[in-house]
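Researcher: I'd like a candidate sequence for this fold, 244 residues long. If you have to choose between options at a position, lean toward the conservative one.
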């Protein structure tokens, strides 16, 4: 009887210890206990161009020597294109619920523009290929911590610089084979939401971000694919996993 009571008491103590251990908040590697911390991110990127056409965008295109290159256009559109990015994170705490973040990274993505003509044999999709360096600066507004989760919203600006592309790749190509190109650098505004999930040795933040470029991102050239377009804007949706 005494042995049974002893075993029951020991079992209750072990259960209580387990329950309290499970309910104790995770440390998250101490990221929130410091004025600053570092991390890294992996991102899936989906983007497309917002196309503003010229008034005469449907007209056939003629080369400088008067040669007809394309028939009249029926449509110009930009389908969603996928890519990925890797980045480095620096976080600086401003208050308990507000922090500044810098998240430089490399983006690898192809964007596309599809042209359909009255002569369907001329229909073509042009890829705008580039490796891009992004430098975002943002403010992160955080909720109170609920157990091991903290919700947040984020807003800021980003500067993007092309570090590889096809600036002169079509210089010797026929007019029908010319490319559409982006300018070397442009700025965007960003907004995001996500949550911080605390583990024992690190903090994981799934995040969804929307960004739109300021102004025009197209390099204007006199060819069959750039001339119908007045302005290109870049719309990007990003899903990231951020580790601190």
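Model: Candidate sequence:
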């Amino acid at each position: 009887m005494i042995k049974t009571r002893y075993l029951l008491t020991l079992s209750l103590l072990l259960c209580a210890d387990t329950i309290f251990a499970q309910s104790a908040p995770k440390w998250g590697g101490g990221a929130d206990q410091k004025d600053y911390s570092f991390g890294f991110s992996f991102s899936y990127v989906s983007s497309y161009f917002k196309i503003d056409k010229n008034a005469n965008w449907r007209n056939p295109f003629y080369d400088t020597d008067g040669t007809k290159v394309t028939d009249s256009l029926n449509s110009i559109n930009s389908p969603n294109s996928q890519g990925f990015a890797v980045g480095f994170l620096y976080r600086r705490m401003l208050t308990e619920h507000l922090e500044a973040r810098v998240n430089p990274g490399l983006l690898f993505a192809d964007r596309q523009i599809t042209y359909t003509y009255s002569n369907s044999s001329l229909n073509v999709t042009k890829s705008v290929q580039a490796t891009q360096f992004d430098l975002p600066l943002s403010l992160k507004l955080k909720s109170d911590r609920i157990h091991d989760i903290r919700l947040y919203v984020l807003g800021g600006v980003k500067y993007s610089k092309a570090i590889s592309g096809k600036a002169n790749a079509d210089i010797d190509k026929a007019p029908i084979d010319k490319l559409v190109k982006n300018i070397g650098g442009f700025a965007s505004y960003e907004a995001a939401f996500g949550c911080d999930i605390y583990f024992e040795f690190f903090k994981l933040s799934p995040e969804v971000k929307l960004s739109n470029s300021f102004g025009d991102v197209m390099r204007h050239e006199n060819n069959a694919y750039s001339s119908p377009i007045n302005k290109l804007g870049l719309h990007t949706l990003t899903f990231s996993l951020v580790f601190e």
